[in-house]
Specification:
heterodimer; A: mainly alpha; MetI-like fold; two-stranded antiparallel ribbon; 12 helices; globular; B: alpha/beta; D-Maltodextrin-Binding Protein, domain 2; 2 domains; 10-stranded mixed sheet
Chain lengths: 298, 441
């Protein structure tokens, strides 16, 4: 009777799971498998019957010596992800720490979170005006103090950093929201005990806050890195083609152009799988580093 | 227990049914039109995918309504998609078996569409009509592998836009005829403030995306005597004298050896009367008219300057109406397109000719339209439209190999890299030439 009851419960559990399993199968598993199949073919995107199997040719193409995928595109993608995560994370750590010491914390969190709920297209366009070399506010400030105007998005040496700055600024709100939640989860008793023992603010921060915030930090870093490596819209809005030349071109933008502009769906899918492997490796490294540092909950 | 058992089974059955329904679909590349089964349909509705949205869609509507009221058996349903999304929409609809019966396509996509067998070949009577009634650049633009695939519509040549007031203020009564004149006039007109910011730009190329940079480049190269690619579309001509000289000219406008600031927006600047000369297509005159209002009288258009000042050359890009090779109602689609493009319905103009004039202030390239009193009057009173219409008689077509978009992307990125100091002129010539040839293999 007992085993019969358990079997029924199992059936019931699976029946409840079926909708979400079907959802994942249709919208995740099938597309991923299909993408992998496409990466082994030459396909123009118009007619499934015209798909031709080419084996690993697309992978060979993107790793060929004259390919721009590894350098500068994948290099740019790394610089973009690391740069924007570093900027947003450091800023968010400072802001969230300060917010927890202020009144109206909800208000401050909302203010910092505003860019995250604004469409990236709007943000990109606002920053295009700010960076405008002839009448943008940044250049107005520079010229008013006697400096020469800067071509933020037309100078290949700084164009990528100009986009990274916007991406970093954009990421602060989301990171602040999660980090402040993590900070509020640290029991106040620890700080009281440390104060009684004579620990100052910095000692408390490095000996209590940071260690207990590690799981939250790990979550913020992993999700931000993945987001940074997959970033596409901001570059599309701010430099349209990843220019000048390829100086701001990133992996996701190149995939989009390969597929939708050039009709090279096989090459685009191969790039997507390479990026998937890269993201997977980086995420694993982050997990290992944090586990060695004592974070066990992920 | 029984109730739970039944519930579990019912849920499972429902989910499986749902999954089967979700997984099934129109995967047989069936046409979009109604009445597309085996039985001959009495009435068909043909979908027509265009990039005419907003005001243009409204201007096209009366013509479609006229056809629909006169032809109850063949109803046309236009679907407007923004230009930036049109190619992607054709791609996704076609792969899902939902492609429109009639498509308005940009000739640059022709090679790609041909490779993927998207467009049907035009019937003989349509092909003959096109060959007999349109200029060579338009016929070539609406052809793939030498076979006509549809009716040319917007055939736009490139010319030199100049601001008469700025030229006059600098002491020039006429636009330049040669490249050397153009550069020396531009240097004389250019004005900068104390911080180095450009106040008035003598000559500027428009920038932003591949087409905006490459099409003027190809027009300049045509004026220098060569197309970008060989006639059989298998070789790059960038290493020819015309190619090298055109890239050299480009290196003298922006970049290390350039005479003006690359960050100054020539497109906006021309509209605000701050740019004296630039290269643009005919349709741009309509936009400038709206933006510049009274100042539009300052705008003049001249043929693209050439190396010697006597030869003429430019390019023209083409849009064309084509029919989906998968449509089961191709005959009906061609019947409609023939009416749209060759039947005189109003003011001695074809519906397409009438639409182009009303919507874009552009002259149709069809001979019968050009003979109509209304269009003749328009051409006589508007020297800008006349200039672009005349240019079609000597323009080369924008070449469209299967990898046209990639070829243009290579050229664009190399030019931008040269302009922003990432590579020298010689490297630009070599890199662009080699990379384009690689793509043409």
């Amino acid at each position: 009777m007992k085993s019969f009851g358990l079997r029924k419960e199992t059936v019931l559990a699976y029946s409840f799971l079926i909708p979400i399993l079907l959802f994942y199968t249709i919208f995740l598993v099938i597309p991923v498998v299909f993408s992998f199949v496409i990466s082994l073919t030459e396909w123009g995107g118009f007619d499934l019957e015209s798909m031709t199997f080419v084996g690993l040719d697309n992978y060979k193409k993107i790793f060929a010596s004259d390919s721009t995928f590894l350098d500068p595109i994948l290099t740019n993608t790394f610089v973009f992800a690391f740069g924007s995560v570093a900027l947003s994370f450091i800023a968010a750590m400072m802001v969230s720490f300060l917010i927890t010491r202020l009144r109206w914390q909800g208000l401050w969190r909302s203010i910092y979170f505003l860019p995250a709920v604004t469409t990236i297209v709007a943000i990109g366009n606002v920053w295009l005006y700010i960076y405008n070399p002839t009448n943008g506010i940044l250049n107005e400030i520079l010229t008013s103090v006697g400096l020469k105007p800067v071509n933020f998005l037309d100078n290949p040496s700084i164009a990528l950093w100009a986009v990274i700055a916007v991406s970093g600024w954009l990421g602060i709100g989301g990171a602040v929201l999660i980090l402040t939640a993590g900070l509020k989860g640290i029991p106040h008793d620890y700080y009281e005990a440390a104060s009684l023992e004579g620990a100052g603010m910095w000692r408390q921060y490095f000996s209590i806050t940071l260690p207990l915030l590690r799981p939250t930090i790990l979550f913020v870093l992993i999700t931000s890195f993945i987001g940074g490596l997959q970033s596409f819209t901001l570059t599309l809005v701010m430099t349209r083609t990843g220019g000048p030349g390829n100086s701001t071109n990133v992996g996701a933008l190149e995939m989009y152009n390969q597929a939708f502009s050039f009709g090279n769906w096989g090459v685009a899918s191969a790039m997507a799988f390479v990026l998937f492997v890269v993201i997977f490796i980086i995420t694993m490294i982050q997990l290992i580093v944090f586990r060695k540092g004592g974070v066990e909950s992920y | 227990m029984k109730l739970w058992g039944k519930l579990s089974k019912a849920t499972l059955a429902l989910m499986l049914t749902g999954a089967m329904v979700a997984c099934s679909g129109n995967n047989g590349n069936a046409p979009a039109s109604e009445g597309s089964g085996n039985k001959p349909a009495e009435k068909v509705e043909l979908t027509m995918l265009t990039h005419y949205v907003g005001v243009n869609e409204t201007q096209l509507k009366p013509l479609i309504e006229q056809w629909n009221s006169e032809n109850p058996d063949i109803q046309i349903k236009p679907i407007g998609v923004d230009f930036g999304e049109l190619q992607k929409t054709i791609m996704t609809k076609q792969s899902a078996g939902q492609g429109a019966d009639i498509m308005h396509v940009y000739a640059l996509w022709g090679g790609q569409l041909n490779k993927n067998n998207v467009l049907a070949e035009a019937p003989d009577h349509i092909a003959e009509d096109v060959k007999a009634n349109y200029p060579e650049a338009a016929v070539k633009g609406a052809s793939l592998d030498g076979k006509v695939f549809g009716y040319p519509t917007e055939v736009q040549a490139y010319g030199l836009f100049y601001n008469k007031r700025l030229l006059k203020e600098a002491g020039f009564d006429n636009p330049p005829a040669t490249w050397d004149e153009m550069l020396s006039m531009a240097k004389a007109i250019e004005k900068k403030d104390s911080s180095g910011k450009v106040q008035v730009q003598g000559f500027g190329f428009q920038r932003g995306y591949a087409g905006l940079v490459d099409q003027p480049f190809m027009a300049m190269m045509a004026a220098a005597g060569s197309n970008l690619l060989s006639d059989d579309l298998t070789k790059s001509n960038l290493n020819t004298d015309a190619g090298k000289k055109t890239l050299e000219l480009y290196s003298k406008v922006y970049g290390k050896d350039g005479m003006t600031d690359i960050s100054f927006n020539a497109t906006k600047g021309f509209g605000t009367g701050q740019v004296a000369m630039t290269i643009g297509a005919g349709w741009w005159a309509g936009s400038l008219k709206t933006v510049m209002k009274d100042s539009y009288t300052d705008v003049g258009v001249a043929p693209i300057p050439s190396l010697d000042g006597s030869s003429k050359g430019t390019i023209a890009y083409t849009w064309a109406w084509g029919v989906n090779s998968k449509s089961k109602n191709q005959e009906a689609a061609w019947k409609f397109l023939q009416w749209m493009n060759s039947t005189v319905v109003k003011d001695d103009l074809t519906p397409e000719g009438s639409f182009l004039l009303e919507a874009f202030n552009t002259a149709s390239s069809r001979k019968s339209d050009l003979e109509s009193p209304k269009l003749k009057e328009h051409l006589g009173s508007d020297p800008i439209i006349k200039n672009f219409s005349d240019a079609l008689t000597y323009a080369s077509e924008e070449q469209s190999p299967a990898t046209a978009a990639e070829v243009q992307d290579i050229l664009f990125k190399n030019i931008e890299s040269m302009w922003t100091g990432q590579q020298s002129l010689d490297d630009t010539i070599n890199n662009a030439h080699t990379q384009i040839e690689e793509k043409l293999k």
